[in-house]
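Amino Acid Chain and Its Fold in Token Form
===========================================
What this section holds: a protein sequence and its matching fold, both as plain text.
Structure line: whole-number tokens from a learned vocabulary of local backbone shapes, matched to residues.
Purpose: to set a sequence beside its fold so the mapping can be learned.
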Amino acid sequence: MGLKLMCVIAHPDDECFGFGGALALAADRGIETYVICLTDGQAGSYRAGAASGEELGKMRREEFAASCKTLGITRHEVLDYQDGKLVTVDFSKAAGRLVERIRQFQPDVVITFGGDGGLNTHPDHMLVSMLTTAAFHWSGQSKRYPELGAVYSPQRLFYLTTNFFIPGRQEPKPAPWTVTLDIRSVQARKAEAFRQHASQVPLVEQTKELFEKFGVEEFYTLIAAAGTQPARQETDLFAGLEG
């Protein structure tokens, strides 16, 4: 069985803006990838002329699918939570939905946002981090959600982190990284995936110079792993794992 990577995000465009390099690199190695997006982005600041939240959500779902295709993502899914209001979800039920998907897909590695909420300190990103962290651990515990299938424990959980901030925005408190990914071989694809989100053109333009300056690398922090080990610097999310 080959290696598998799961990425859990909050909004359409998170997959490319934050994780596009890791996902494209994995796809190029033949690693099966699955991206779960919790909302369809109806509360986005950039509306692209959409007359309603429902219309914007439909637009952003289509953009998400196009972006995933560009990155080479194997499987993608948008859940039905309300954009901007993940803080109101039933935590146990929402984590259970992720547990069920982890047990079914059986990823080796899971990646998501850190508890800082990412570059824009978004509360939805913070909640995705917390839900995914709980699901990562609970998936392997027989007393948690026994009705949702056989237990399964992924090997590693990583948080996305950063080596730069967005000027003019509140600075997050990011975790120090343990993995530096050289994404130069897929940098153009990451940018092309971002451009699939036509409704978010203002964001694309606002961050263009930042990605030109800092976009050759992505940074991740190892948060949990099978077995005890010291922290160390790596250049591969899958270092030492075999498919």
